[in-house]
Amino acid sequence: MFSRFLRDPACTCIIITITRTPPTPPPPRYRFLDSNIGVRNPTAPRVIATKVGLDQLLFTPLSTFMFYAYLCSAEGRPSAYLNTIRDKYWATNIAGWKLYVYNRGVYGG
Question: Residues 71-107, buried b or exposed e (16+ Cβ, 10 A)?
Fold first, then answer.
């Protein structure tokens, strides 16, 4: 959305130019859920609950593993992956689930 940040030499403010960007496609996990679960009636409450449950209990923990694997590799310490998972994995997942429940309660949907 913000294509570039320009520094205005006349004053000490930042000018933000806004351009219209095309919508991003949904992540592959959502495309998988949409194409395999509840195809005939995608808005039924039971279908939505199944998709949310699979997303939060299957895909989110898997994504957390992949995130920490990438993070350790990008930092140049792939041998620290197991220690990082042991120290941070459950805390990260529980914090994400708390945030998810809070967002659903406050913003609905």
Answer: ebeeeeeeeebeeebeeeeeebbeeeeeeeeeeeeee
d(CA 6, CA 44): 47
Collapsed DSSP state (helix, strand, coil) of residue 36: helix
User: Per-residue DSSP letters for 45-100?
Assistant: HHHHHHHHHHIIIIIHHHHHHHHHHHHHHHTT-GGGHHHHHHHHHHHHHHHHHHHH
What pLDDT shows up at residue 42?
85
Between the CA of residue 48 and those of 2, 16, 37, 67, what are the distances in Å? 33, 38, 9, 26
| Tokens 């039924």 -> residue | 44
pLDDT digits (tens, 9 = 90+) for 42-86: 888 899 889 888 988 998 999 999 999 999 999 999 889 999 999
- With cut-offs at 50, 70 and 90, classify the pLDDT of residue 108: low
